[in-house]
Each structure stands twice: as C-alpha cells, then as structure tokens.
Amino acid sequence: MNSTRTLLSIKELEIDYPSRDGRGRVTAVKGLNLELAQGEIGCLLGSSGCGKSTVLRAICGFEPVKAGEILLRDKLASSTTVHLQTNQRKVGMVFQDFALFPHLNVLENIAFGLQHLPSNQRSSVAMEWLKRVSLSDKSDAYPHELSGGQQQRVALARAMAPEPDLILLDEPFSSLDIELRERLAGEMREILKANNITALLVTHDQFEAFAIADKVGVMTDGKVLQWDVPYELYHKPANRYIADFIGRGVFVKGIVLPGNKVKIELGELELDHDHSKDIGKEIDVLLRADDIQHDDHSAMQAEVVRKTFRGADFLYTLKLASGVEIFAFVPSHHDHAIGEKIGIHLVADHVVTFRD
Ligand SMILES: Nc1ncnc2c1ncn2[C@@H]1O[C@H](COP(=O)(O)OP(=O)(O)OP(=O)(O)O)[C@@H](O)[C@H]1O
Asked: Domain ABC transporter, which positions (predicted)?
C-alpha cells in the first residue's frame, strides 16, 4: 500500500445553481482546490451556505460541474465534458440524518449495499462490519431502537461495507448532543484509520474538524482559503479571515521594534518572521485566549467584563487599561466576579500578525 498516493484531487472547481427567479445562475463553489491522499481524513470547515455540501454532492456525482475537474484515483470523474455516474465512482456517503432504512434491521441495512455479493456472503460480510463498529449485539435491532450514536455507527458501517475508495460525511454529528459528538468524533477517526479509509467530511464546528481530520480546509464563499493540517491553520493562518474563524482571539495594535519584536499594550513579543523592514510601523497582532495567562502576582491588571463557565475553565473577556477587550482561558477554580481586576501575563508563542 502506498499511503502517499493521491486519492481525491479537485482542481479549480466551479458549480452553480439556477437562481430563485429562474432568470440566471448563482455560484455556490468557485476556484476550489484540494487534494486528499489514500487513508487521509479531510474536512471542509465553514459557516452555513459557504458551499460545503455542494462539494460533497459534486464528488458523488449528484451535481454537474461548471468548470474545473474532480479526479478519483487519478481518473477524471467530473469536468465540463466528463461525468461518471455515481455508481461508477466508488464513493460512499453518510448523510446528516444517517438515512437508515427504517423497515430494515441493522444487519439488513448494512447488507443493502452488498448486492454485488452472493446472498450467502452478504450477511457474513455485514456482520463483520458490525463487529468493526462494536455493534454485533444489535444486528436484529431496528434503527428506531438505537441511540443516535449507534445509528451513526450503523450508517458508517453501511457506507464502509461495499469498500468504497472514499467516504463522504455530511455534518455527521449535527443531530447528536455535544458530549456524544466529542466522543464519537474520536471514535469515528479510530474506525476510519483502523480500516485505512479515505474520508472527507464537512462541518461548521472547528473542534469536530480538529478532532477527526488530518487536513482541514477553511471555506468561505465557495472557496477553500487554506487547506492544511490543523496545527498550521491555528498557528499560521494564511489570512485574517482564517485567524478570526479559528480559535478565540482578537486583533490588537502593535509597533514593530528592532530585533524582530513587537510591542503591544501587554508587553513585548518575539516575531517568527523577519520584520526589519517594518520597524516603527503599526501591525495587528492576534491575541488568542490561550496566549493570556492568569497570574495573581502579575502587576498587569485587566477587568473581568464577561465570563463563560466551560467546566475545566472559564472563558473570561477582559478589558485592558486602554479599553481593548481580550479573551483568556482561566482554570475554573479562579472564579472571579464581573468588574473585578485580575493579574495576567502574556504567554504567546507563535505570534500571528497582519499588516494590511
Ligand atoms: N439546489 C439548489 N438550488 C439553488 N441554490 C442552491 C441549491 N443548493 C444549494 N444552493 C445554494 O448554494 C450555496 C451553497 O450551499 P451548500 O448547501 O453547499 O452550503 P453548505 O456550506 O453546505 O451549507 P450548510 O452548512 O447550511 O449545509 C448556498 O447559497 C445555497 O443557497
């Protein structure tokens, strides 16, 4: 097995739909590029309406493309002149609501996609996949007798059983409660990785994206702005939109100092890149909640203006002397009242800055 082989390649994809008034077309996806290697898990992350589901539908072959190409295993699947039928693409799909057949039991749901096998093999292969998602004891249950998480695992097993080259997952956790989402995101990653399955999911939840995916693409207006590993997206966002979208942060003003440093209201920070040409100039510095540490002994004080309890920590909104508001995660045993002043210091490591 060659793990670096490209399985999905999308080049300059453009897709449009007829407009509501029927007079023209509206662009849903434009100039979209991404690549996924065999065994990799990718995720398209973006807010509602940015075009995520449209991309999945196009990969499945449900939408014709207006421009660009979709290649599966180096074979052209969609372009302006080529359109492989869905059943020729070897792509499986898990829908938002799982779309299990209510009148079929769990085993029959999974066996449904195995029509190409002789009937005596269908049940045993389906049973094998049920084992892989740890649901062997539910083979004769009906979908309505299962929890949301169990239904999701059945949907995943049903999509994996015909052994497609690629599995597409459309907001796979959106109908589940938050606690379950986090656990299942990790579980789903384990199942996909254990079976060396290539997958592309879409979500608007960055924690879900980071919990599952090897590569994440931040989308807006039908485009992927940055297709990267989560660490790079967080620490080296390609532009302000991504910096703003990922994590909890605010931009504060800073002045570039000699020696690759920047001075902000809270002190001086080392810069990652050479800024010698910008000395004396003003830049915007991204301060994330995890760049600020609460320190009772610090002389630097900030006023608590808002607080959200998150269990292990609080997300505090803090007002600096200048009136600028920043965020800080603070362990939840430091329960300070709104209006109180608390000591803080800077712990920023990778400093993200923008000039224009
Ligand atoms: N069948 C359609 N006809 C016309 N416009 C459509 C159609 N499907 C989607 N659109 C439009 O295309 C754009 C992208 O839609 P899409 O469903 O791909 O977004 P999305 O990012 O998946 O959103 P969500 O997270 O809300 O599901 C939206 O502006 C939407 O209104």
From this structure: 10-246
